Amino acid sequence: MVALTQTTKNRISTTLAVFSALVFIQTLFFKFTGASESVKIFSTLGIEPWGRIGTGSVEFIIATLLVFPASRFIGALVGFGLMVGAVLSHLLFLGIVVDDDGGLLFILAVLVLLSCITIINLEWDRRPPT
């Protein structure tokens, strides 16, 4: 096993945090504007409109937490929880492909989930004290 330097850990963590934050911010637009795909997803889950708006609000908070190193661990932890819910929603209720998106939303959810897991691992030593 190769030990990573702190500089390398920081670079990987920052890259994954920026990627995840951009995905969260990009999907916010569709949730807050009531795009038909978002409305369909949350209607299928039985939580439209409040689930859509609430999820979008949480995604905004997560994206904000991820971009600041001091709060990145917490952002990744909350992002992990949200993405577990998203992946499970796809697997159990929505299906991999939603509205002919080719599985893009599912793939993004999995990538952000994996990014959050990696950030949690990299930031573990800098997590807030309990």
TrEMBL record:
The keyword Transmembrane applies. The keyword Lipoprotein does not apply. Keywords: Membrane, Transmembrane, Transmembrane helix. It is found in: Membrane. It is a multi-pass membrane protein. Its main location: membrane. It comes from Leptospira wolffii. Pfam families: DoxX_2. InterPro entries: DoxX (IPR032808). GO terms for cellular component: membrane. This is DoxX family protein. The chain crosses the membrane at residues 12-30, 50-68, 75-98, 104-124.
